[in-house]
Design brief:
By secondary structure, the chain is an alpha/beta fold. The chain has 2 domains: about 130 residues, P-loop containing nucleotide triphosphate hydrolases (Rossmann fold), CATH 3.40.50.300; about 70 residues, no CATH class. The chain is about 35% helix and about 25% strand. It contains 6 helices and 9 strands. The strands form 2 sheets. A 5-stranded parallel β-sheet has the order 6-7-8-3-9, with helices on both faces. A 4-stranded antiparallel β-sheet has the order 2-1-4-5, covered by helices on one side. Helix 2 packs across helix 3, helix 2 runs parallel beside helix 4 and helix 3 packs across helix 4. It is globular and about 45 Å long.
């Protein structure tokens, strides 16, 4: 996997003012780009722009030269939002399987990959439980497992360790580092010193 994500002259304004104007962003395969800054500086908004769920007011986001909207659904960035973006009535296994179904994989492969991602995130015992029955940390790991299961070359994660205890944070950070080593692009919004220490580059908003 060899890809480049570029945000060119990105500008977004909200009611209270300009969050960022003319911002250039580059993230490459195998790298972790961290987005930092104080509350209200636009970190989550930038994550949504780079994740393809919110268009910028001006500028464009390209993956290997193609605008995100032109990519096939399975190849657009996979975003893990702060609220996790989960459907409470689905089980953990059903949730993780969703991006694999979009890829139209065979059922045995979907089961195997779903099981593997749940196992890697320590959620084996939660596979058949509804998301609404899980703790905050478990839901956060389900959202991360779903992103990992996708074929997306870009993972955008907004505060992915906020609900995790030390042991599960280490597990998740090791998994994310492994995904980067395999060539994925990781964009991570975080205040977590462990996340920042493992990043290859940073964008600090609100300076």
């Amino acid at each position: 996997m060899n890809a480049e994500l570029r945000g060119i002259a990105l500008s977004v304004s909200v009611e209270r003012g300009v969050l960022f104007d003319g911002l250039d962003v580059t993230a490459r395969s195998g790298h972790v780009l961290a987005i930092t800054g104080p509350s209200g500086s636009g970190k989550t908004t930038l994550a949504h722009v780079l994740g393809g769920v919110r268009p910028p007011d001006r500028g464009v986001v390209l993956l290997d030269g193609a605008p995100l909207a032109e990519l096939a659904p399975g190849w657009r960035p996979s975003l893990v939002p702060q609220d996790y973006g989960l459907v409470g009535t689905l089980t953990a296994a059903e949730t993780v399987a969703l991006p694999l179904q979009v890829q139209a994989l065979a059922r045995p492969e979907i089961r195997e990959r779903t099981s593997r991602r749940l196992r890697e995130t320590g959620l084996d015992a939660c596979a058949s439980r509804a998301v609404d029955e899980l703790s905050g940390g478990q839901r956060q790991r389900v959202a991360i497992a779903r992103a990992l299961a996708s074929a997306a070359p870009v993972l955008v994660l907004d505060e992915p360790t906020s609900e995790l205890d030390a042991a599960n944070r280490d597990i998740v950070l090791a998994l994310l580092a492994g995904e980067a080593r395999q060539g994925r692009i990781l964009v991570v919004v975080s205040h977590d010193p462990d996340v920042l220490a493992r990043s290859d580059a940073r964008i600090e908003l609100g300076r």
